[in-house]
UniProtKB/TrEMBL annotation:
Keyword Oxidoreductase: yes
MF-aspect GO terms: oxidoreductase activity
Pfam family, one: CCG
Record organism: Robertmurraya kyonggiensis
Keywords, alphabetical: Oxidoreductase
All residue ranges annotated as the Cysteine-rich domain in the record: 5-88, 150-240
Gene3D superfamilies assigned to the protein according to its UniProt record, in alphabetical order: 1.20.1050.140, 3.40.50.11810
Protein name: Heterodisulfide reductase subunit B
């Protein structure tokens, strides 16, 4: 089967989380998913721009969606929780408010674009369940992740606010568990499963966020997890890149590998950790994966 999506990578995949871009493209190719990157996309605003200029926030994301509409596809896909939130928020506002839509389109007209509202915004995690299907995913598994205990860390923006995101029960989501179990992994229950990673508050509240980071790593470690898996590059960055700094505030060893969702999928598809760019992480995840997964 072949699925085609307009692809909004977002800023992080072209900078600090290039490993997610690499692994996403590798996995998509094996699964038969065509990702057409938007030509000329712009930053989604990363959940901050609306505090300064709400109309601009809506306009730039309406423009990104309009670029997807130009491709003639039905869905625009991302692999970032925050990008998904920002794009869906703009779409919801535009689709509910014809006056706002007209005002935004006046500006878009100068660039030769028009927001029509014909494209749905989705996340790779949701697309795997809604479009691809778990049974089809299971058929692609070459290296079952049997014995690997994963802690699924959702991140705030793929769940909330529920009236914007709304894919599943935001108080007890199961999508990550469903995908991980389809790959053969064992899901570990831990207290911080639905916690905030702290990424968007790291500069104004660094001390508090470092404590959050440590707790978010220690909780699954004490529950017996081999690694944390997250569908969001910002959560991955906060828990991985800032983990050494967070360790300074804890007597206990909080060391916990943090991997992206496409990397977990890629391992089950038989793609090597190096090809998935897992060796680029700050906290070395490869030894833990090698101990538990055959052929890694």
């Amino acid at each position: 089967m072949t699925l085609t999506y307009a692809f909004f990578p977002g800023c992080t995949l072209e900078s600090a989380a290039e490993e997610l871009m690499i692994s996403t493209k590798k996995v998509a190719a094996v699964l038969g998913i065509e990702l057409i990157e938007l030509d000329g996309w712009t930053c989604c605003g990363a959940s901050h721009i609306q505090d300064i200029d709400g109309f601009l926030s809506t306009s730039i994301n309406a423009r990104n969606i309009a670029l997807a509409e130009e491709l003639g596809v039905s869905k625009l896909i991302t692999v970032c929780n925050t990008c998904t939130l920002m794009l869906r928020t703009a779409k919801l506002k535009m689709d509910k408010n014809e006056n706002l839509k007209e005002k935004v389109n006046v500006g878009l007209e100068r660039t030769g674009l028009e927001y029509k509202g014909t494209v749905e915004v989705t996340h790779l995690l949701w697309a795997l369940l809604e479009d691809y299907g778990l049974e089809n995913l299971k058929k692609k598994v070459k290296v079952p992740l049997k014995g690997l205990k994963v802690a699924n860390f959702y991140g705030c923006h793929i769940l909330m606010p529920p009236d914007v995101m709304g894919f599943e029960n935001h108080r007890n989501p199961q999508s990550m568990e469903m995908v991980a179990e389809a790959l053969g992994a064992e899901c570990v229950e831990f207290d911080q499963r639905l916690a905030c990673c702290g990424f968007h508050a790291v500069f104004p509240a660094q001390k508090e966020v470092m404590t959050m980071t440590g707790i978010n790593c220690l909780s699954p470690k004490e529950a017996g997890a081999d690694c944390i898996v997250t569908p969001c590059p910002l959560c991955q960055m906060q828990l991985d890149a800032y983990q050494p700094d967070a360790q300074k505030g804890f007597d206990q060893d909080i060391t916990m590998p943090i991997i992206h969702l496409p990397q977990l999928i890629g391992l089950a598809l038989g793609i090597s950790p190096e090809e998935l760019a897992i060796d680029r992480h700050v906290v070395d995840a490869i030894p833990a994966l090698q101990r538990k997964i055959q052929a890694v």
